[in-house]
Amino acid sequence: MAMIDTQTVKCLSVSGPRGYDAAKRVVGRKRVALVDAEGYWLAVAVVPASVQERDTLAALDDGKAAWPSLRAATLDGAFTAERCQVWSNLHGMRHEVVIRPSGQKGFVVLPRRWVVERSFGWLTHWGGLLCDRAGRLDVAAARIECAAALAATEALINPA
Fold this sequence. Notes:
Transposase_11; Transposase
């Protein structure tokens, strides 16, 4: 099962491409992640914050090609556009959007959505990744990939 989400990262010391997300009122970058059902990172991309969430799926094309066995895409509510459905169908995945129940106010745990949030939370263990300081977007993504590889190795060495 593929879990896809974006997380906006803001840091004043970032050089290189950045953007402004008016909805979140954030200047910086977005991290786009493809994770498995357990929350382990399969692919990651970093894009300027000005890119809309539904337009970031193309950044994960190479990651999906590396994991052809993924059959379901569980997406955030921002991915309800028809082009997101087309992207999922193009890659042979079932398109599932997790949206907040109507009338719900405040925090609510959404089904399967917490897996992605936990994956982003794991980055807090790798101090330099909370605030992205890389100038190039591919370098920022590579830093996350290295941390993901270290976390996966640690999970193999010390199973819970």
